[in-house]
Each structure stands twice: as C-alpha cells, then as structure tokens.
Amino acid sequence: MGDVANSSIEFHPKPQQQWEAPHAGGFGCTLAELRSLMELRGAEALQKVQETYGDVGGLCRRLKTSPTEGLADNTNDLEKRRQIYGQNFIPPKQPKTFLQLVWEALQDVTLIILEVAAIVSLGLSFYAPPGEESEACGNVSAGAEDEGEAEAGWIEGAAILLSVICVVLVTAFNDWSKEKQFRGLQSRIEQEQKFTVIRNGQLLQVPVAALVVGDIAQVKYGDLLPADGVLIQGNDLKIDESSLTGESDHVRKSADKDPMLLSGTHVMEGSGRMVVTAVGVNSQTGIIFTLLGAGGEEEEKKDKKGKQQDGAMESSQTKAKKQDGAVAMEMQPLKSAEGGEMEEREKKKANVPKKEKSVLQGKLTKLAVQIGKAGLVMSAITVIILVLYFVIEAFVVEGRAWLAECTPVYVQYFVKFFIIGVTVLVVAVPEGLPLAVTISLAYSVKKMMRDNNLVRHLDACETMGNATAICSDKTGTLTTNRMTVVQSYLGDTHYKEVPAPSVLTPKILDLLVHAISINSAYTTKILPPEKEGALPRQVGNKTECALLGFVLDLKRDFQPVREQIPEDKLYKVYTFNSVRKSMSTVICTPDGGFRLFSKGASEILLKKCTNILNSNGEPRSFRPRDRDDMVKKVIEPMACDGLRTICIAYRDFSAAQEPDWDDENEVVGDLTCIAVVGIEDPVRPEVPEAIRKCQRAGITVRMVTGDNINTARAIAAKCGIIQPGEDFLCLEGKEFNRRIRNEKGEIEQERLDKVWPKLRVLARSSPTDKHTLVKGIIDSNTGEQRQVVAVTGDGTNDGPALKKADVGFAMGIAGTDVAKEASDIILTDDNFTSIVKAVMWGRNVYDSISKFLQFQLTVNVVAVIVAFTGACITQDSPLKAVQMLWVNLIMDTFASLALATEPPTESLLLRKPYGRDKPLISRTMMKNILGHAVYQLTIIFTLLFVGELFFDIDSGRNAPLHSPPSEHYTIIFNTFVMMQLFNEINARKIHGERNVFHGIFGNPIFCTIVLGTFAIQVIATIPTSQLKCLKEAGHGPGKDEVTDEELAEGEEEIDHAERELRRGQILWFRGLNRIQTQMEVVSTFKRSGSFQGAVRRRSSVLSQLHDVTNLSTPTHVILSAANPTSAAGNPGGESIP
C-alpha cells in the first residue's frame, strides 16, 4: 500500500514545487511529509509522530491549530490551507459525452439490421440497369420500372435511415439527461453530507468539501470519515477499515497505540476527536482514486463491455448504481466498483452478492425476449413465403429462365422482401418499451423529490410499488424522535411527572446530574430554541437529549459539570453499541479512586445492580426478589404506557482496588441504581393514518425495534400496527431466535415460515435478527405470492438489513452515513408517510408501464398480422416499412411519454400489491389487447379487401410490388393510425374501469401529445393539391398540377386516382420539403404556359388509361436518370422545356 501511494506522488509534479514553499509561509509541515505520515500504521505511525513532532499536540502546533479550540473561522486562513494542502474533493469521473452515448445506442441489433436494409435499399434505388432487357425480365418487374417508384425507393431507404437516427438520438438524449439527473442527485447528496468540526471552540456542522487540513473533527459512532487524520483523544473507538484493507475485523484506535484514521472508513463504535492531516486527492482514498484514474481506464473499458450486454433496461440501472458508487467520493469513498486495488476489486466481486434484478425488470426482460422470438419467427416466415411465391410464379408458372442482366431487377425484389421482413420484425419488437420505462422512472424520481424521497437507485422506485411488507424502525420513523422524560423512579418513589427539585434529597439529585451530564456524548446538547415559543433544539443522540432535558427540568444545568470534567479528563469510556445496549464512563475521584457511571436498558442494567438508593440517598441492598418486584410495579406499567425505560447507576472503586479495565463484565457489575426513568417518544400524528393506508393497500407493516416488548407493543397499538382481536405475534429477539433455530443453532426456513406471517412486533432485536427476518421473508415461498420487502433504518447496525431488502429506506436527518450508503431511497424528512408516497409512485410506475404495454402490444399484434397476411396474400404489405416506422417510432415514443407521465392517484392504494410472481400482462389487459386487435383487424381487412367498393376508388391490391402507395392504401394507413390514437385514450385504464376519460385533463402532457400526433398525421397525409395556400404561395395556381403528373407517370395498371395520391403523401415527412419543391417547379415553369396542356393531358389520361404521357421537368432530371428503365408507355421520355 505504501509503495502504491508513493508512486502516486508523481502525479502531482506542480504541487511538489509548492510543497517546499509553505515552510517559510507559516505551516511547519509540508504536504509530502503529511502524505508519507498517513501511509504508516500502528506503532510505526506513533513512533514517526513522536520522532518528528513530539506528540499529536506538536503536530497541531505545526499546523497552527488548537486541539480544543480548533481553527479560527478565518476565511483567508482556510483558503490558504486549501491552496497548500488541497481541497477535500475528489473530481468525479468524466461523464460520457453525447457522441459516446449515440455510439452506444447504435449498437442495438435491430437498428443494425435496419441500417443494413436501408443502405442496401438506398444503393439499389440509385442503380439503373440497362433498359432493353425489360421485356426479357418479364412483367414481374414492371413495377420496378416506374419513375415514381424510383423516387419512392430512394425515399424509403432514406426514411428508414432517418427513423434510425431519430431512435438513436432519442435514446442518447434520454441517457444523457438521466446521467445529468444523477450528477444532480449526487451533488445534492454531497451537499447534504456534513461533518462536525470545532472552530473557534464552537461545534459546527460543515459540508464535507469544506474540511481543511488542521481542522479538529469530532468522530462518533456511525460516521464515515471524510478525510485522513490523527486521533487526539478517543473513547473506545473501533473502526471498520474493510473498504481500504479488505479486512473485516474492526480495528481499535487510541491516541497511544494506533492513532491513524483514514478517509472512507466507518466508525463502528465509540467517539473521539482527530486533527485532519490529508484531504481530497492527497488522502489515502484519494491516492488510490488517482491511481485508478491512470491505471484503471482499461480495466473499466472491459467492465463496460461486459455490462453493455445486459440490455437497455439494465444499463440504465448499472449506470445509476455505478455513478452512485462514486458519489463524488466523499459519500462513499471506496464502496464503488473502482474501489481499492485490483485484487481487492476481485475479492469484492466474489463476496458481495449483486442485488437481484428488480421485479419489473425481470418481468420486462422475459417479455421482451418472448416478443422478440415471436417477431423473428413471423418475419422469417414472411420473407420465406414472399421469396417462394415470387420464384415459383416467375420461374415455374411462367417458365422464365434467370438471365444475368436481369439479376439487379430480381435482387431489388429480394431486397424489398427482406425489408418487408425486417419491417415485420421492427413492428414486433416494442422498442418504445425501454423508453417508456426510463421516462416513467425519471419522471417519478423527479416528482418523488418533492415528496421527500431522494431516490438513489432508479429501480427502487418501481420495486416499491410491489412491496408486500414493510419492516419499520420505531424511533424516529413511527415516532417523532423528540424524546422527553415523563416518569421517573427516584428514592423509592414512582413519580408520574417530573418531580420538583425540593422533593429530592440533594445527594440523589447531585449524583443524578453528574451521572447524566458526564455519561453521555459531549456532542449531545440542548440548545435554546431558534424561534421564540419553539421547543429547545435537541442536538445529538435523542435518548441522551431526553436525559439532559430531565436535568434542566430539575432546575440544574449540565454544562458546568462538563466544564469541570472536560472530555479529555474522562478515564475510560465504554460507548453504547447494539451488543451492550448500555454506556459507561469512568472518572477519577479526588481521593485517587474511580467512579463509574452507567446508563442503559433497564432490564439489562438492573440485573447488574446489587444496591439501590433509598429516599435519603443511602444505598440499600437490591436482591433479585426486589428486582422482580420493581419490574412488576415500575417498569411494566411504564412500558405499558409506551415509555422506554432507562436505568441510571454508578459504582465506586477505591484507589487500591483498580480493576482490569478491559474486563468489561467485571467492571460494569455490582452497581448501585440511582434512578429508572421512563422516556416517551410520541407517535407522529400522521403515522396511524399512513399505516391504515398501507394495510388497505395490502402491505403488512412490522415494527422491528431495540426497545422492550411492552413499550413496543404499546406504540404498535397506538400506530395501528396491531389491532385488538387480531391473531398476531409480538416477540423478543431471544424468543424469535429460539423459534427459528434448530438444535444446532442453525436457522431453518420452515421454522421461520411458521413465525413471520403472524409476526407484527419484534422487540429487543439485534441487527442480526433484523437481517434474518428480512432475508427469511424474502426467501420464503409460503403464501400465494413471494414477498417484496421494504426496510427502514437509521443506524449503522441497520446496514445489512437495508442492503438485503428489496428497497432500503434510510433516514435523511437521523440516519448515519453507513445507513444512507446501504439504502436505495433516503427519506429527507424521516417520516413514515413519505414511504406511503413512495408506494404510490412505485405503483404508478408499474401501472404506467402496463398502460404502455397494453397500447404497444395492440399496435404490434395488429401491425404484424396486417403486414404478414398482406404480404402473403397480396405480395405487398398494406402498411409500408416507413409507415410502420412512423407508427412505431413517433406514436410509441410519444405514447410512452403521454402514458408514463400520468400522475398517481389515491386509488392506487386501494388494490393489493402485484407481488413477484404475477404476470406483467393481467387478464383484463389481455382481454383489452385481444378485443382491440380483433376490432382493428376486422376494420383493416374489410378496408383492404372491399374498401375500394365503399369509397368508389381503385384497388391498391396486387399493384406491382414497388409501386407507390395508392389512395386505397393511404385510407388504410390513416384508419390504422387513428385507431391507435384513440386506443391511446383507452390504454389509460388497465383495471377494467368504465370511464377512460376520467382525469384526462389532469395530465396536460397527455392531451398535448394526442392532439399533436393527430395534427402531424393529418398534415402528413393531405395531398398537396388540396392545400390551396401552397398554390397561392407559388403565384401560379396550376403549376403543381404538372408536378402531380410528373410524379404519376407512366404505367398502365395504375389509374388516375392513384396518381392523384402520388404527391407528398408517399411518406409523412415529405410534406415538409413540398413547399421548396414547388417553388423550384414554379421557377422552372415560369415561362411555359403548360397549365392548359396539363389539363388536356389529364382528360386524355382519363379517356385512355393505357396512353400515358410522360412529363419530366428539369428539376427531376436526376430522378429520371436513376430510373431503372424508362416506362414502356414512353420510351423516349419526352421532356418539356
């Protein structure tokens, strides 16, 4: 590790020149010195500090800082430190550029197939075979000879390419905006992450990026260290350094053994103060990151290649998770994929099980594969049938030989068949789906921010909609986390409210004040209210705040006691942790002895008490019988009122009998009980209603708490988690373990399955119990469906359960960094009602995607069947490739936007969750899809086979394969699009509701998109001759008639009505180029009075269909040249000047 770090110094050649200067500039340490110091560990590091600086105090003096007062809050000084020692910021990796995202989007297989087809089609449309062979090649190719077709052929290839470009740009833009959103989210998380430092003797919360070398930082249980430092003073400090070293054992830190604290490591126990010695890229984590910046690039490229194959849905998620991994490093220094050295990375990959795909993702992937396979089969069959039909008709029925010069003509046919096949495939694959999912998730995540849900992983948002169980913490989530002491047992008397100080013996009062003031974290304080009339501000641990508040209620003050015995005078501190469930502090007494103060859960601490203070403040013996008595008369009644009971005790050691301080059980025993207090944490007023909503929505809420069973039960009843008369279980951790483990002490899933369905409250639970319960519920297969579990947590110990859960909620205010890091969603207001909002949004995402699927699959089923049967019966798809792409791309993209932005309603909470196993397409949806498909197919086939009779137009069937669209087929196309448009409104409801218009005006995006699509469709298919305004713009009303004919030139089978249609309506986007073409035409014909001639030709065409005049204008000479062979009707290609 040392060598690695040393080598990285070469990355900073410029600062190196700067490093030497500061010696004179004021500070007694160079950056290089501090960096080499932080590479040492344990005794080696201590020796170096002593040799170079004398002690940590000497280091502080050199850095011009005070171990107790900290830095002066002087802007110039702080700025100077930043310039010399760097900022506490590690530059995040460069985001992908838009072009890189475009390139990634182009890798899609379907798009590649389309690109190839389009390029081949484009190439062939410009290839003109020699004209004389047309007779020999047979009339099969007659359609290919039409000049209008040459035009259409060229445009079809271009149009396919254009739609590919559209898809790619939309996808790339989407990814880009998502990346941007995550950067924003990241910076928000960064700004929210603050750390406690001492400046000017005041405790301040400063953003992590504002830390500088020389700052004195307070470290406490649950912190994630934001910079490297040297410990000045510590209490029972244990650090998890696994993110740097890979060793899972906690490392004990102390000022006299191993004082080195490293950024990115977690404080698992204890507290202390450190002087910051390295920040940002110069900290140990920063050095590794800088190395990764140089050496990790190739590694990462390999990584990315592997990840890309997981499909669009997953790539969005991995991207989210990857970016979260590096939450500008200050949040989560080395938990990201790039953390630690390379072998470290391999180890991590093996150890950490990746979270399974989210519920919806799994279902969508499965569905997409099924649809893809079906589409492939259909398209293959279509191509085979078309090719066989063509070959049999040309070479068997008509007995023609294959001539070499005819090859290009035939190849054009085969390419056309291939394009039809690809069209069927394109229509079958719902490529709007990833888009719908992303839009829906991104929209929801943005809106959820307003509902106090900071979503860290996109998929969590949708998983939450499927949640069937929530395991919630009690303190701070269901309750206000504003603790107050409301009952107490002091001097043999049970007080139902805070006693007057005069009632208590001074000795008891004095002991109580000292026990509370000294034996609590010195960072915990009660500050005066910010506004008049508001409640005093509680800073730090809430239970300790309640006890300090009790001191203030007894008209005493804790501050003078703390000033008398400052934190560095404390002899030994056993900090609170989830195993001890108590905290003890040892101080030296004036006579050379020691006094230990202890506080903790009453039932645990009372077992260690052998004496109790009586009303005079004298100790009397406290036997097990007395304890049982006290439990019955004091503790249980308090717990039944929903109070949390804390016992406060002390013990004196004489100078002669100093114990072995490491033998904690021996030290914290034989105590004298001073008092038992009952702390109330009132239930948040909005929680009972929120829990009722969850229960109505089919979600079981379970409370998992470290509190005792009676308190937990009382609070659960107040919240409505348990109701009288229900069949439920409330268990303590021990009983829970006894029930789920076999004789060998192993957990058995069958035993667990008997317990969890009825379990509502798990009290006195350890972090392992919480994890066991969550894992057990997720793995269980009992019941109709598998469970999807959400967990809330705020403590470091909740990390494993939060990670294991399908969705982990961390508390934004009370949560520790470790909990936030393990979570998927951060509740910025620590409130249970925000979880209910998350459920609503999650269900809304799921429903939005189901709505879109219902819409998309109807389009797909109809289009595939129409294309397939059309191609097989009439040798041409009634819906052209480009028309299909218009429907598929524009309709679906817009539809996904319209349906994905439907706002959630309360009615979403009235149904049961879908769960893991329920299929994505419900019976109602299937009924809707098939019903609409049958209706649409009936209409389209009616129009296809007998439509010409209804409208009195000429049939578009059996036109030569390459001929441009007829009026007949345009009617079919328009009908098809209009049916989809109205089906979009039907798709708004998927649970069989009657009124599909309900709440439609609540979503302006939806209305705009439906009307917009309608307008574009109308404009795209209006024949230009009908747009009078365009004629007027040309100042020559008849000019475009000529263009009309020129488009509709010579072919016997195609009649006037179809010719009318050849204008701008071949493809939807040609309308836009139309005006320009007309202006050119107008200028070309300025001097020719050809309008009369055109009209004359029109009438002659009507009387003699076979005698068609070919008008070729100079503007279209190129197109004429591109024509495979001139039309049979007019070999010369008469041209008008």
UniProtKB/TrEMBL annotation:
Organismal lineage: Eukaryota, Metazoa, Chordata, Craniata, Vertebrata
Segments of this protein annotated with the region Disordered: 1-23, 298-328, 335-354
UniProt biased composition (Polar residues): 1-19
Function: Catalyzes the hydrolysis of ATP coupled with the transport of calcium.
GO molecular-function term, one example from the UniProt record: PDZ domain binding
E.C. code: 7.2.2.10
Membrane topology: Multi-pass membrane protein
Name of the protein in question: Calcium-transporting ATPase
Keywords for this protein: ATP-binding, Calcium, Calcium transport, Calmodulin-binding, Cell membrane, Coiled coil, Ion transport, Magnesium, Membrane, Metal-binding, Nucleotide-binding, Phosphoprotein, Translocase, Transmembrane, Transmembrane helix, Transport
KW Ligase (keyword) present: no
Domain of life: Eukaryota
Organism of provenance: Balaenoptera musculus
